[in-house]
Amino acid sequence: MDYQTYLKNYPDRNGHFGEFGGVFIPDELVPAFQEISEAYQTICHSSKFISELRRIRKEFQGRPTPVYHCERLSRMAGLAQIYLKREDLNHTGAHKLNHCMGEGLLANYMGKKKLIAETGAGQHGVALATAAAFFGLDCEIHMGSVDIAKQAPNVTRMKVLGAKVVEVTRGAATLKEAVDSAFEAYARDYKDSIYCIGSAVGPHPFPLMVRDFQMVVGIEAREQFIEMTGNLPDAVCACVGGGSNSAGMFTPFLNDPVEIYGVEPMGRGEKPGDNAASITFGSKGVLHGFESYLLQDADGKAAPVYSIASGLDYPSVGPEHAFLHQQGRANYVSATDEEAIEAFFKLSHYEGIIPALESAHAVAYAMKLAQKMHTGAILVNLSGRGDKDIDYVVEHYGLGEKYL
């Protein structure tokens, strides 16, 4: 495959990355998604839109975020050097604002009055509530009751920002159910609202839009790393749930001689229901309007999933990741809850950086990879900060003495 022309060819006009992606939605929603697609294709080539988004990123979000060399963690882990792209320093504490401000700008252009979305760990909800406040729009966030209990600080932040938080109690009451609920709400109010999907998933054009908005992460990181070291990294690493932070990180490196690692949540182990590693254990299926790898039960329905990280417990994965896996361009690996917790405490202790539990999965794999490589450099997307997770981690794991 010619990765020099990758962005021109993928996805195609119907939203397919090879055999993955597409649009699988009720007929009544087809015009709404066509409207979103046409509006995005118009403004993404508009100098006025691009200029405004750049201004927002610089003056409001605080971009560019830095790349940081973890010298002490690297010495502890092995001879390979670990670097972090510090998306935890992006306004609101995670990468999510990158696409939320873009989607808010799109909603403003389309004349919509309300933003509707789901959230798992709460970072997408906080980011969208922030965008709604910035643009003067209403905001409705759907969140599973399990995640509401785990992520109380982010729930409070959403409410302070003016968002309505809808508690979802059905099923497992986590991210998948929150998406179901948000889709239903959007179907009832699509004329005045826009559904802002929180990852590189869903019907076309959302995997395309979110990837494009998040590419700022990889573009910055590539330029910064070359400026810092004079070379490309040997490996790039990011966690993968739906896959927004990783899609944005990976794409600018596709044409480079760089190994790419997407880290899925192995949770408690390999048994069904104990993890959310959809590329590792899934098979092709349709969920939430798109086709990709899906963890399924015997009846072909989305199976129960689990991860200590609320933002990773999703039974499918973005279609672009499925395609990159199928093409062999990216390696999809995993980290367990225990490995993520160890990385959480070690990064905190050795570098003074408390990571989100989602991001800790990528740090955990980078530490293992550093031991195998013996030399070279690994660039990790630290997609978010761990403020939201501290209470939960300390309650269940103490202060981490056994991991240090």
Describe the model.
The protein has 404 residues and is α/β, with parallel strands linked by helices. The chain has two domains: 24-58 and 96-207, Rossmann fold (3-Layer(aba) Sandwich); 63-94 and 214-403, Rossmann fold, CATH 3.40.50.1100. It has helices spanning 6-9, 30-43, 47-61, 71-77, 97-110, 123-135, 145-150, 152-160, 175-188, 206-229, 244-250, 278-281, 319-327, 337-351, 357-373, 390-397; strands spanning 16-17, 20-21, 67-70, 81-86, 114-119, 138-144, 164-168, 193-195, 235-239, 259-267, 283-287, 290-294, 331-336, 377-382. The chain has a six-stranded mixed beta sheet, with helices on both faces. A four-stranded parallel beta sheet has the order 7-6-5-8, with helices on both faces. A two-stranded antiparallel sheet has the order 1-2. Helix 5 packs parallel to helix 6 (123-135). The longest helix is centred in the middle third of the chain and has 24 residues, at 206-229. It is globular and about 55 Å long.
Topology:
Layout lengths: L5 H4 L6 E2 L2 E2 L8 H14 L3 H15 L5 E4 H7 L3 E6 L10 H14 L3 E6 L3 H13 L2 E7 H6 L1 H9 L3 E5 L6 H14 L4 E3 L10 H24 L5 E5 L4 H7 L8 E9 L10 H4 L1 E5 L2 E5 L24 H9 L3 E6 H15 L5 H17 L3 E6 L7 H8 L7
Parallel strand pairs: 4-14, 5-6, 5-8, 6-7, 9-10, 9-14, 10-13
Antiparallel strand pairs: 1-2, 3-4, 11-12
Key words describing this protein structure:
404 residues, Rossmann fold, 14 strands, globular, four-stranded parallel beta sheet, alpha/beta, six-stranded mixed beta sheet, 45% helix, 2 domains
